[in-house]
Design goal:
Strand content: 5-15%
Number of strands: 11
Number of helices: 11
Order of helices and strands: HHHEHEHEEHEHEHEHEEHEEH
Shape: globular
CATH topology of the largest domain: Rossmann fold
Number of domains: 3
Structural class: alpha/beta
Radius of gyration: 23 Å
């Protein structure tokens, strides 16, 4: 029979309901039911074994990823990318150790690829107790580093795309040290995800070496990509380049100074804040970022919306809402930066 996601599958729907009930402790059973239907439909649609193996392994890897990260959901995390070939005596390695140690001292956890080089430096600086390693099976270079070898927060993936999801989905910020093709691939994907709004805004810091690895890259970006109109000037708000690990930590901390998180509800962008904005603050945002929202609409303070009830721990936070145009995500990063410059106002706007 042709299975459907609506409840028109007769006995099969009854059997799935019974299975979920007998499994006991299943959260969000409506979604789990759809996942079971998807698995059955995949079995009907696909007779090519390799495709089914890919779907199966993907589900297993993502389920295990969620299980490992779930206990640390309330902890801020920073993903670190960089070359597996960086040696411990090199400048970038030592800088990464210092960077991750500073973050751990401020309560952050570190996510790396779990291998040698910059990945080991990140785990070394933060310490095993403050680290995750999302490793990949490769024939060379990528055995787990000594810091994470026996760590319960070590995950080894078969597929790069699952690993990339973990790198970005679980991170509140990302830092990129000099590296090769893999490092650039990871960094460019994050650029794309932020630029297109496929991940939530988060600080992306490119930590340079004394040879100006990222400065040379930036020169190419300005002359070739911006010069030919392949990107917009506002896209430079997506990232920060610095040679200082102290400044890199400050960029990350400042990003969450007042901005907390965001969510889209019925076409409206809801920005959750750590402190309320005054009417004057909102007017300044209106004047400085008119392109960010649809013509004829305004930035307004708002109470939590009913749709946000599924995040009860965030209901206490003040909010602003706007009709975002879904185009200027680079400008949205600048908008968040401006929000973070406001001091706590004496006449903050009340609901």
């Amino acid at each position: 029979m042709q299975l459907r996601f609506n409840r028109t599958n007769g006995e099969i729907d009854t059997l799935i309901d019974s299975l979920i009930e007998k499994a006991d402790g299943v959260h969000h059973p409506v979604l789990v039911r759809e996942m079971v239907i998807s698995a059955l439909k995949a079995g009907q649609d696909t007779d090519y074994l390799a495709d089914l193996k890919l779907l199966n392994n993907t589900m297993k890897e993502m389920r295990y990823t969620n299980r490992v990260f779930a206990p640390y959901r309330q902890k801020k995390k920073v993903t670190i990318f960089g070359s597996a070939r960086t040696e411990p005596h090199e400048e970038s390695y030592q800088k990464c150790v210092s960077f991750s140690r500073r973050l751990a001292d401020k309560g952050y956890m570190i996510i790396t690829g779990g291998g040698p080089g910059i990945m080991q430096a990140g785990n070394e600086g933060a310490g095993s107790e403050n680290s995750f390693a999302v490793n990949i099976r490769l024939p060379f270079e990528q055995a787990p580093n000594r810091v994470m070898l026996a760590n319960p927060r070590l995950i080894t993936y078969k597929y790069f795309f699952n690993r990339k999801v973990a790198f970005v989905k679980e991170a509140d910020a990302l830092a990129v040290f000099p590296g090769g093709f893999g490092t650039l691939d990871e960094a460019m994907e994050v650029f794309t995800l932020i630029q297109t709004g496929k991940t939530s805004p988060k600080p992306l810091v490119l930590i340079d070496d004394s040879d100006g690895y990222w400065e040379q890259w930036f020169k190419f970006i300005k002359e070739r990509m911006l010069g030919k109109g392949f990107i917009s000037a506002e896209d430079f708000s997506i990232f920060t380049i610095t040679r200082s690990e102290e400044e890199a930590v400050k960029v990350i901390e400042d990003f969450y100074r007042n901005y907390h998180s965001l969510r889209f509800v019925d076409g409206r962008l809801i920005i959750r804040l750590n402190m309320e904005l005054s009417k004057a603050n909102i007017e300044e945002l209106e004047n400085e970022f008119p392109e960010l929202h649809h013509a004829g609409t305004k930035i307004v303070p708002t109470a939590p919306l009913p749709e946000e009830a599924d995040e009860p721990d965030l209901l206490r936070l003040p909010r602003i809402a706007l009709q975002f145009d879904h185009q200027h995500y680079g400008l949205l990063m600048a908008f968040i930066g401006r929000i973070n410059t406001f001091e706590s106002p004496p006449d903050s706007c009340k609901q």
